[in-house]
Design goal:
Blueprint lengths: L5 E5 L3 H12 L3 E5 L3 H8 L5 E3 L3 H5 L4 E4 L4 H11 L8 E4 L4 H14 L3 E4 L2 E2 L2 H6 L2 E6 L2 H14 E8 L3 H30 L3 H9 L6 H11 L9 H14 L4 H18 L28
Parallel strand pairs: 1-2, 1-4, 2-3, 4-5, 5-6, 8-9
Antiparallel strand pairs: 7-8
Length: 299
Amino acid sequence: MPDTTTVAVLGAGALGAAMAARLGETGHEVRLWNRTEARARAAAENAAGVTAVRTAADAVSGAAVVITVLRDGDAVSAVMSDVLPRLNDGAVWVQASTVGPHSAAALAGMARDHGADYLDAPVSGSTTPARQGNLVWLVAGPEDVLARARPVLDDLGSSVLHVGTGVEGSAVKLAVNAWMAAATVAMSDVLGLCDALGIDHATFVRVLQAGPLAMPYELQKVDAMDHTSYAPGFAVQLALKDLDLAAMAAAPSPLLQAVRDRLDATAAAGHDQDDLAAVDHLRKPPPPGHPGRSSEAGP
């Protein structure tokens, strides 16, 4: 596969739009589709190399790599069942949506039935890493298929981890997201403890940064929590979805159930589309002018 190629991105949500923009900037010809056409047009408007197309079939026609970035397994299945017969010979379907291993296996079977090459390839990272080319790919599938898609994945990610040949990527992604949600809830609770102990949050962060306990993602959440800035990187409703997918494989531990309850309460308070940092809303009253969902909430 040449370094510059035609890529179809199916799904113009926050992550799909960021992926499309990054690929356009790195010289690929990108066709962006979304079920709501206006959303794809808005994402493509100021993105070099990105063209919004009216149908998913228009997007995949002639594409060497097709990336699905949709909400769940049902959405992916509905879209791809219509367009799989239209994929070019040798095209690679990169399934990047977080769907869980059960749906990932069904989608792999769908690809196999149509003779299509398939990678189970969710990512660790959200919109900012996608725009910067710093996603971490969690890829399962044949090595030769991965090699053909690799130039596109490299332009989006700082790491491409080949974790198996089946649907191990989707399994690892659920574990990563459960850890991320639990760590964010823990950070909020510990900031409350800092307040009770009279510890300035900046001092707490400085101590973490000085040793092996620093977790960059959660240190960023301290700033978001302190400034009640909940613009979505990874939305509460998506974290809830992923914990529910994980629960299909194993009953939640007491800790993960407590995390899920906290997310559920955060969503009920109007922050379902806000970033995970909004879990901090429940431990303190919202600032003046910010009742319920914060003004920084995404669409």
